[in-house]
Design goal:
Shape: globular
Number of strands: 0
Order of helices and strands: HHHHHHHHHHHHHH
Largest sheet: none
Helix content: 55-70%
Number of helices: 14
Structural class: mainly alpha
């Protein structure tokens, strides 16, 4: 191919054939692209770092907008055949927006800001009446207890166990009566249940919980007393009960001396453990009493607690409970060999049962106390009367 064919124009733009330069005929390298508008590429240049804005200035005061480039058509070309580049805008350029746009932005910023309400117009919270507490002291909160409040208001701080514990006591009394009529080993099963309830209820009645070691120790004392009575026989019941109690008091004293608690707490635990063990061992006297006396006493206690649980006034309830105890003793005595003397035995057992109920009802006890001490103490407290009156009347 010749040089004339490769380069039809000379460097000055005049064709070699002698024709003058025509810009409309000149071929350029801009071709049609997929874009509808021309987007020139601006070379990145080093720009100054933006100055930090103050936090107290509202965001709507200054707005930075991207520079707007007018659309460039394909027909608007420069004399050199290219498109002119727009002038570069420095970073941080504040666009000259119309006054209406700036006013709208400032109005939007002012709406988003809410001034705090003055203190005089702030809503006042209404405090609900709560529990009345005494003034603070150096020794802690001196709020009175429910029992003290009841006494101050003239009410009784004593709450009786109610009908449900009374029904359980009556059921356990019937089991004791049936077991005594069958034999000593049949009596042993409900007796162990009675001793366990007595040990657990006494500790909880004294406010000591959990006291697993003390409960286990007292219950073990009752088991040992039962075993001694079954081995030695009914005629040696006083010696077996007193001997077991003495050994258990000494054992409890040794265990409490090894405790690392405060002296006052150790003394309190010692008294509670000794009393609980004494009651559990005393309940074992059911095995040492006459079987007929055990039957009469258990029936009388069951009748007493059921009558005491009736919704009657205080003095009338006590009278009705004692009459029910005597009637239950007469009914049970007619089924055994005691006969009419069962009324006296039943009356004595009923008086002891009311004492046990009174102890289990002391100073707003909990439901656990009612379901343990409230069930067991009436039957446990009646054991001395059953043993002594049974020996005298049989």
């Amino acid at each position: 191919m010749s040089s004339d064919q490769q380069y039809p124009y000379d460097p000055q733009g005049t064709p070699q054939g002698g024709q003058p330069y025509d810009p409309s005929v000149t071929q350029t390298w801009e071709g049609q692209t997929w874009d509808t508008q021309y987007q020139p590429v601006v070379q990145p240049q080093a720009q100054p770092q933006p100055q930090p804005q103050h936090q107290h200035q509202p965001q709507a005061s200054v707005s930075y907008e991207t520079p707007y480039f007018p659309p460039q058509g394909y027909g608007q070309q420069s004399a050199t055949g290219g498109h002119p580049l727009p002038p570069e805008m420095p970073y941080g350029y504040e666009s000259q927006a119309p006054a209406q746009a700036q006013a709208a932005a400032q109005a939007q910023a002012s709406v988003s800001y809410e001034a705090p309400a003055p203190a005089s117009e702030a809503p006042v919270a209404v405090e609900e009446p709560g529990p009345a507490y005494s003034p603070p002291t150096l020794s802690g909160n001196s709020r009175i207890t429910d029992a003290q409040r009841a006494r101050a208001e003239g009410r009784s701080p004593i709450i009786e166990p109610g009908m449900q514990p009374a029904a359980l006591t009556a059921g356990l009394g019937v089991l004791l009566a049936v077991g005594a009529a069958v034999g000593p080993y049949a009596l042993l099963v409900p007796l162990l249940l009675l001793q366990g309830l007595t040990a657990a209820g006494w500790f909880r009645l004294n406010g000591m919980w959990p006291a697993r070691q003390g409960i286990a120790l007292a219950f073990l004392g009752g088991i040992v007393a039962d075993a001694v009575l079954l081995i030695t026989g009914r005629e040696n019941a006083p010696a077996a009960v007193i001997g077991t109690l003495g050994v258990w008091v000494l054992l409890t004293l040794v265990l409490q001396l090894r405790s690392h608690a405060d002296p006052d707490e150790r003394m309190y635990g010692l008294m509670a453990t000794v009393a609980s063990a004494a009651l559990a061992i005393l309940a074992a006297g059911q095995l040492g009493a006459e079987p007929d006396a055990v039957v009469v006493g258990a029936v009388a206690v069951a009748a007493t607690v059921l009558a005491r649980a009736l919704p009657l006034p205080g003095p009338a309830s006590v009278v009705v409970a004692l009459l029910a105890a005597a009637g239950g003793g007469i009914a049970a005595g007619g089924l055994t060999g005691l006969g009419g003397s069962g009324a006296l035995l039943g009356l004595g057992a009923g008086v002891c049962a009311l004492v046990g109920l009174r102890v289990a009802s002391y100073d707003y006890p909990s439901r656990f106390v009612h379901m343990t001490a409230g069930v067991a103490l009436p039957l446990t407290a009646a054991v001395p009367a059953v043993y002594l009156l049974g020996r005298a009347l049989a």
